[in-house]
Each structure stands twice: as C-alpha cells, then as structure tokens.
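Weekly puzzle thread! Below is a chain. First person to post its structure in token form gets bragging rights.
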Amino acid sequence: MADGPDREALLAELSALSATATSADGAVSLSVNTDGVLTRLRLSDAVSGMAPSEIADAVLRTYVEAQRESAKRTGQLLAPLGSGGYLMDRLRWRVQFEPEPVPVAAPAPAAPPAEPDGKVLKDRSSDTPAEPPPAGPVADDDWYGRGMRLDRAW
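Winning reply:
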C-alpha cells in the first residue's frame, strides 16, 4: 500500500464498509463488515410462522448474500493494489461460496412410551435413599481400598 493520505483514505473506507442484505420475503435483514463478519441481524414478524430450519436457511442465505456484496466491494477498493495474493483469493472465494442446503426438519419425536399403568414418569418416593456423603474428606486409603467400582455411584 502507498503511504500518505491514499493509504489512510483506503483504510477509512475499508473500516466504514458495510453490506446489507434482505431475504426475498423480508423476514431476515442483516449487515456484515468488510471482513464479512455479521454486524447486525433483524428478524421480522414473518419468522413467527416459519419452522426453525426455514429461519436458519433464510439467515444463512441472506448472510452469504451480504458477504458476497462485502467481498465485491472490498475487492473493488483493493483492486488498485493488484489482484494477486491471499487476501484477493479469499475475497474471490467469498464471492463464489454456496452454502450447503439445509435439510428439511425431521418430524418431532413421538412422546415417550407410557408405562403399562399409563404413567410416563416414575414414582421414586419408595426408593431407598442414597447414603449421605461423608462428613469430611475421604482418605485415599479408604477410596482405593474399596475400589472405585464398589462405589454406589458406579
């Protein structure tokens, strides 16, 4: 980069760069900075009628769209410096990135099978209570002498 006001102006433009994208249905709107980092996320009331997987997909696709715009604009700002190098390769990758399709949500799991008497939860009030913990620290000899597998917790 050149020294002087041009360098400072370029750094200021890169710092101020923000790209915003909105999903086609308007449910998701977000912004990213020049590095493609999410800086703002807004969800409209339209998401209340969407499944979680649909919301996730809309956020991801809108995020990718904003990242592409950010990468294009960052590349345009940096173009006078040349088109080679790691940074430009990463910008080209961000422009071409396609997210994996979000799988369709699996149906909600069925309720746990009921016990023969129709109860799902077990009544453990008649179970014998666990031994109270020792009043103080247990000596290593006691622990190793009994063996770890003999402890009721195992």
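Puzzle host: Confirmed. Bonus trivia for everyone else. The beta strands are 18-22, 28-33, 38-43.
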